[in-house]
Amino acid sequence: MIVLEDRKSLNDWVEQSRLRGGKVGFIPTMGALHEGHLSLVREARKSCSQTIVSIFVNPTQFGPGEDFDQYPRTFVEDKALLEDISCDAIFLPSPEVIYPPGGQTFITVEPLASQLCGASRPGHFQGVATVVTILLNLVRPHAAYFGVKDYQQLTLIKQMVRDLALAVEVVGVPIVREKDGLALSSRNRYLTTEERKQAAALYKALCTAKSLYKDGELRAKELEQAARGVLLESGIEQIDYVEVRDKEKLTSELTADDPVMLIAARVGKTRLIDNMVLST
Ligand code: PAF
Q: Active-site residue 37, yes or no?
C-alpha cells in the first residue's frame, strides 16, 4: 500500500491505475477509522480493481467552537487497518495541498445544506461539498463510497454530483452498528462509559418509530414524538432534531413510499447522529 501526500504523486498513481484498466474506488475519510469505514473499503473492493482512501481532517467543515482540534488523528492505526484489508493507496494531503493559498471558490447546495444538521452547524455542508469536489477532481475515481450513517451528507453529495454532472458513481453503504445498536462513529470515542450506555437510545428511538410505522402509524408528528420520548426517557435531553423526511429529497413533504427518520442529539458534550428508513 502506497501513501501519497502531494498532487503530483497522487496524479501519477491515478494515471497508472487508469492505464491498467478496471475501476478506481475512492473512500474519502477524516481518519480515526473504524469498522464502518472498513465496510466502505470492502464494498469498493467488490467492484473496483484499485481502492484509495483519503485521510484529511477538513478544517472548512468545522465551525468555531467545534471539535476540529480535538478530532482524533490516528494515522499509524489507520494505516495498519487499511493494510490489513488490502487497500491499495492512502491519500494523506496537508491543508495546503487541498486548499492552495488564494482559493476563492466554495460549493453550496441549497436548501439541502441549511436544514437538519446544517441548521445548527452553519457552513458545515459547504465545507463538505467543497472538499469532496476537490477530492473527486484530484482522485478522478469511477466510484466514491459514503456511509448511509451521514444520510444528509450522502443525499447532498448525490445532489451535487447530479447538478455539476460529475463523472462519478456515488455509492451509499449501510450503517455498521455495535451490538446494542449504536451506529459506529469516530466521535463515539469521546463518550464516557455512562454516556456510551445512554447513546444506544438513539437506535432504540429509531426502532420504536419503525415499529409504530409498521403497525400503521403514518403521521410524522406522532412518530417524532414517540422517538423523542425514548430519548428523554434515557436521559438524553439535548435533542437537536428528530424528523421524518422524504428519503430521497429530505423534504418534509413525503413523496417516496418509505420515509426516513433522522436524529441528532447531544450525549454529554458529544453530538451524535443516526437514521433509519421506516418501512412497512
Ligand atoms: O464523512 C466524512 O468523514 C467527511 O465529511 C468527508 C466526506 C470525508 C469530507 O471531509
A: yes
**Smallest CA separation from ligand 1 atom 9, residue:** 128
**186-275 under CATH 3.30.1300.10, yes or no:** yes
Distances (CA, A) of 239 to 94, 98, 113, 268, 270: 35, 34, 19, 11, 12
Q: Is 115 a residue whose pLDDT tops 80?
A: yes
Give the pLDDT of residue 256. 67
pLDDT value of position 279: 87
Catalytic site residue from 34, 37, 124, 142 = 37
- Ligand 1 site residues (CB inside 6 A) read 28-30, 58, 61, 128, 131-132, 150, 153
Peptide bond into 111 cis (omega under 30): yes
Domain boundaries, the chain: 2-173, 186-275
Rounded Cα–Cα distance for residues 68 and 269 (Å): 14
Q: Are 49 and 21 in contact (CB under 8 A)?
A: yes
pTM score over 0.85: yes
Task: Identify which of 253, 236, 40 has the alpha carbon closest to the alpha carbon of residue 141.
Answer: 40
